Amino acid sequence: MKKAMIIIGSILGVMLLVVVIYVGYVFFGYSRIEDDLILKVEQKAKDSQVETDKEYTAVTFNIGYGAYPPDYTFFMDGGKESKARSKESVNENIEGVVKTLERINADFAVLQEVDEKATRSHGVNEVKMISDSFGDYSAVSATNYDSAYLMYPVLDPIGKSKSGILSLSNTKINSSIRYSLPIETSFNKFFDLDRAFTVSEIDVANGKKMMLYNVHLSAYMKDEEIQKNQIMTLFDHMENEYKNGNYVVCGGDFNHDLLPSSSKTFGNDTSKDYSWLQPFPKEDLPEGLAVTDFTDDGEPVPSTRNLDTPYEKGKSFVALIDGFIVSDNVEALETKVLDESFQYSDHHPVTMTFKLKESN
Q1: Do residue 55 and residue 11 come from a single domain?
Q2: Is the N or the C terminus of the chain less surrounded, counting Cβ atoms within 10 Å?
Q3: Judgement on whether residues 39 and 26 belong to the same structural domain of the protein
Q4: For residue 190, what are the contacts with CB-CB under 8 A and spacing of at least 6?
């Protein structure tokens, strides 16, 4: 009996030591990515400037790191899975994203959840796959977060993730900067990870600049004050650029309801608590900035689905959280969500047709 107790105690001691070592690895290995970080632009575009009073198209698309076919469910949304099912499925989904973008043929694209190297996407370099597919577009990628190996969930850990936001432009990008967003400082920071937005400067023929923003705000944040600070940080930066006389075009996944009520619009079952869907604070937008109105050609189209169950049209919980913010020297002609039946991602692409006004 004594010998058995010693063995059991030794096993428990080793397990405790492993846990302590792992917690130390995660805790001491944590650091935020540098703020005001100048990004490397992969300069491939041929056009040197955009014109005023000319029609352009932009698209924003959260590609879900190539992990989410329509029948996929995700553990943090109440589903079961944590990683993409296979490397082949990731490649298939990213190839589908590329084909979708080629069909849209936008002048500017801002993409979110693009993995560079991550356990959850089986090491596929999605940044390279997409950038290489658009040989006439300048590309700039920023790491949104670079996490340690997360042993969560325990039976199927999501692992290590280096993921970011990718912007493409068929007009040369002068420069691009990554700006950090506020995040929680409690233990939750290890799960919500880092957050940022990028600003890419593009010349306009009248001597001004078009500032192309790419943003992915937090979804699972518990601290409402930090969540609001993220939005206000973005708003303040856009306001400064607008006051400097520049054109502001911001696309992204805002993780807030851009409609008066997505649940009413799409007939969602509201008996469950979907706390991530908070109203977008349009009332806090600085003067001269606005969320573009969505063009309704009939049945409204959501931009995202909740991943608690496989997708079923008319039954799944859906919402509209992806879109564009522009300054009032930008004329938004049409903003549409493209219904792709969530074939390659848990999000749909959203397009905006716009013109830059010659003067305010």
Answers
A1: no
A2: N
A3: no
A4: 26, 30, 147, 148, 150
